[in-house]
């Protein structure tokens, strides 16, 4: 049997980066658990636990990376014990026999309260190392995706500035509306992504460690270990936070850190997924109108049957993956709300799936968005042609005002425009003719006082208001947004545009 005979997640195989996959890989997970056990033992020794020897610590330090052989031991033991953490402890004790008996002292599987594998342990007792590790993984994954998001924002900001004063037809209700500039439309995408950046930065800044809190969060076992010296428990958690790179622990934990933490992160990432869909859907609509297009390779095939086709497959893929991400927060909401009292294990299996997937989805979307936003192709001639089909209607309000300034009744002018507009629309829809409203106005002596001014009233730039100024103020070099991206500038300017695997 080869890899082609077993199911493999396309999310990992086709779409996500190697960097994000490494964070959630089995080796990274298992090796991080070993680091956590080492940090706990080092801290406990520093605080006076005499049974932890230098030799034991050296044994742990020498076996931090889980070998392929150790994974085989872990798999065999888990089939026997039905407990993943205890299986890992057993394998570590085989790798580091000098540390046998001191691994996991005072900790549950989430880093709570049990003793070594030589003592009895129930599945519900053991879940502390897993929680602390998950917090590390999520922190590292957030740090990985934030610069990628900043780069996409930077790409679109440059695009917005380049086309800040290129008039294009706007759409409300997906019907023609007052023109804006193409850059002004892109600035809306930028603002939505900037909100996502703010939200994700916020949840990262608020992320804390679980630390060593005991089986149900009371720290009772550590009170016993340190003979009632509670200051040592506080110091223990300070040391653990320092080693893991967190500022502090959550004030309140039960057997786990509250699953509200997962939900807050999921909400931020799900919102980003919705933004990705929003942007990609706009691009798909505009590609249909031949206004712009996403980048295409010369050898890219749009259809196996229709050789002429050039489909916006990147944007379609963004919508597909974004749909999954934008809805994944519902799982985290259900998991959080379904926890009973101090903890139930029905959170475990779904979190193993959903935590990595929400980050792999985010990463995959950012790869696609970087590729698309750095290579959007604009077709100004098509933009102008689309505008010319609707611009005469947009000019009618100004035409009425010009007539009023020439002493003509507004109501009568409005009625003449209404009648001509209806006839124009009728011939466009029923006969497929071009917009001839201006020709009709030129042929009606009622409008003779303003005939000479008609051409000047059809300049598209008259209809885009302060679009260019708005874009400059939001996306320009002195804008607040650019200041927010400053911390990511090294990544933005040193990283090549993402390349799709498929």
Describe this structure in words.
- With 502 residues, the chain is mainly alpha-helical.
- It contains 20 helices and 5 strands.
- It has a two-stranded antiparallel sheet. Strands 4-5 form a two-stranded antiparallel sheet.
- A hairpin with a 2-residue loop joins strand 2 and strand 3.
- The longest helix has 35 residues.
- The protein is elongated.
- About 3% of the residues have low confidence.
What is the strand and helix layout of this fold?
Layout (H helix, E strand, L loop, with lengths): L9 H6 L2 H6 L2 H21 L7 H8 L6 H14 L2 H12 L13 E2 L17 H35 L4 E6 L2 E7 H24 L14 H6 L4 H15 L15 H29 L3 E2 L19 H25 L10 H26 L3 E2 L1 H15 L1 H10 L4 H22 L5 H6 L24 H9 L4 H6 L3 H6 L8
Antiparallel strand pairs: 2-3, 4-5
Helix pairs in contact: 3-7, 3-10, 5-6, 7-8, 7-13, 7-18, 8-11, 8-18, 11-12, 11-13, 12-13, 15-16
What characteristics describe this protein?
single chain, 502 residues, mainly alpha, two-stranded antiparallel ribbon, elongated
User: If helices are DSSP runs of H or I spanning 4 or more residues, what is the number of helices?
Assistant: 20
Distance between the amino and carboxyl termini: 25 Å
User: What portion of the residues fall into strands of 2 or more residues?
Assistant: under 5%
Low-confidence stretches: 112-127
Biggest beta sheet attributes = 2 strands, antiparallel
**SSE succession:** HHHHHHEHEEHHHHEHHEHHHHHHH
Helical residue percent band = 55-70%
Number of strands: 5
SS class: mainly alpha
Q: What is the average of the pLDDT values? A: 91
Rg (CA only): 31 Å
User: What spatial form do the alpha-carbon principal axes imply?
Assistant: elongated
Strand order of the largest sheet: 2-3
């Amino acid at each position: 049997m080869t890899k082609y005979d077993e199911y493999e997640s396309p999310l990992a195989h086709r779409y996500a980066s190697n960097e994000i996959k490494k964070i959630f890989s089995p080796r990274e997970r298992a090796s991080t658990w070993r680091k956590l056990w080492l940090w706990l033992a080092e801290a406990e020794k520093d605080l006076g636990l005499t049974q932890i020897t230098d030799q034991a610590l050296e044994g742990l330090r020498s076996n931090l990376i889980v070998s392929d052989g150790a994974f085989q031991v872990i798999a065999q033991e888990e089939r026997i014990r039905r407990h993943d953490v205890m299986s890992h402890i057993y394998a570590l004790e085989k790798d580091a026999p000098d540390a046998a008996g001191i691994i996991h002292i005072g900790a549950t599987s989430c880093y709570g309260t049990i003793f070594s594998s030589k003592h009895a342990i129930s599945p519900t007792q053991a879940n502390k190392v897993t929680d602390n590790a998950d917090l590390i993984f999520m922190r590292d994954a957030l740090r990985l995706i934030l610069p990628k998001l900043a780069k996409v924002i930077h790409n679109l900001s440059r695009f917005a500035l380049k086309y800040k004063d290129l008039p294009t037809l706007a759409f409300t209700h997906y019907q023609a509306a007052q023109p804006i500039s193409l850059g002004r439309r892109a600035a809306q995408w930028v603002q939505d992504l900037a909100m996502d950046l703010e939200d994700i930065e916020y949840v990262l800044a608020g992320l804390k460690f679980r630390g060593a809190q005991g089986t149900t969060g009371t720290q009772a076992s550590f009170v016993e270990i340190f003979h009632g010296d509670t200051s040592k428990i506080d110091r223990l958690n300070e040391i653990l936070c320092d080693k893991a790179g967190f500022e502090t622990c959550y004030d309140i934990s039960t057997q786990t850190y509250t699953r509200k933490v997962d939900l807050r992160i999921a909400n931020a990432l799900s919102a980003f997924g919705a933004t990705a869909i929003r942007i990609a859907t706009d691009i798909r609509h505009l590609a249909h109108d031949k206004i712009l297009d996403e980048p295409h390779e010369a050898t890219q095939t749009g259809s196996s049957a229709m050789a002429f086709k050039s489909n916006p497959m990147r944007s379609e893929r963004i919508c597909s993956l974004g749909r999954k991400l934008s809805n994944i927060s519902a799982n985290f909401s259900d998991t959080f709300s379904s926890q009973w009292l101090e903890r139930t294990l029905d959170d475990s299996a779904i979190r193993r799936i959903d935590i990595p997937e929400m980050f792999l989805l985010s990463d995959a979307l950012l790869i696609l968005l970087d590729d698309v936003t750095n290579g959007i192709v604009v077709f100004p001639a098509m933009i102008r042609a689309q505008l010319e089909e609707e611009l005469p209607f947009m000019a009618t309000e100004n035409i009425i005002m010009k007539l009023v300034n020439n002493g003509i009744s507004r109501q009568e002018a409005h009625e003449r425009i209404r009648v001509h507009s209806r006839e124009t629309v009728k011939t466009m829809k029923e006969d497929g003719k071009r917009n001839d409203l201006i020709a009709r106005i030129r042929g009606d002596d009622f409008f003779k006082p303003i005939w000479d001014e008609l051409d000047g009233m059809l300049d598209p730039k008259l209809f885009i208001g302060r679009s260019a100024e708005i874009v400059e103020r939001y996306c320009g070099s002195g804008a607040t947004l650019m200041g927010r991206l400053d911390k990511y500038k090294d990544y933005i300017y040193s990283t090549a545009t993402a390349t799709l695997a498929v």
